[in-house]
Amino acid sequence: MRSKILPLCLIAAALCGAPRAAAAALGGGAYTVPVLAALSGGAAATGGAFSAAALNLGGPSYSLTPPAGGAFSLATGAAPAVVIIESASATLGAAHCYPVPFKPSLGHTNITFTGLTRQARVRVYTVSGELVRTLDKNDGGETLAWDVRNARGQRVASGVYVYTVKSGGETATGKLMIIW
Predict the structure, then answer these.
(1) Residue 111 vs residues 11, 95, 134: alpha-carbon distances, Å
(2) Cα angle 78-35-26, degrees, rounded to a multiple of 5
(3) Facing residues of 54 across strands?
(4) What would the pLDDT profile of 30-76 be if each residue is shown by its tens digit?
(5) If you placed Cys at 41, which of 52, 56, 68, 136 could pair as Cys (CB 3.0 to 4.6 Å)?
């Protein structure tokens, strides 16, 4: 996942007297802002994305660029909230799915396609080429879940399947296995 600087950590670190090194590039880890007393500001989450346009800490407003890619926690005196931020990939170079093999006996409930672009179409086929299911993604995240059912809503049979992911002029392909 691409790393981005989380400006909120910079502001929180400065306000809490923490060293400036507390701001770090997000790399799939979790980051905590220990004290944040926001009275107003920010923007409502839309389209599956978190966006903080401005933050008012009882004084001047600070403009923030929206964070993307990673997770952080906000502890405001009540139970802390964990915000997971994922951003769509620019290309399909990292597109894949998991878990492979899919085994409900291990607690698996769906197959997740990840590394997807903002708009992507996933098609799942049998090894003989029969289309099993088409899934469309049109959001800012990078994942899409498949309930392991065909277009008629029936559970697919155990076996090996081939999938294609298309976005713009790009195509990625892969194999997956289902073991009921």
Answers:
(1) 38, 13, 14
(2) 105
(3) 63
(4) 444 333 333 334 434 344 433 344 344 444 443 344 445 555 444 45
(5) 56
Show contacts of 84-88: CB within 8 Å, 24+ apart. 85/26, 85/49, 85/50, 86/1, 86/141, 86/142, 86/143, 87/1, 87/2, 87/4, 87/49, 87/140, 87/141, 87/142, 88/116, 88/117, 88/118, 88/139, 88/140, 88/141, 88/142
Which of these, 123, 167, 161, lies nearest to 142 by C-alpha position? 167
pLDDT in tens, 84-132: 555 688 899 999 999 999 999 999 999 999 999 999 999 999 999 999 9
Residue with tokens 């701001």, as numbered in its chain: 23
In the chain, the domains with their CATH numbers are 7-85 (no CATH), 96-178 (2.60.40.4070)
Pairing status of strand 54-56 against strand 96-98: unpaired
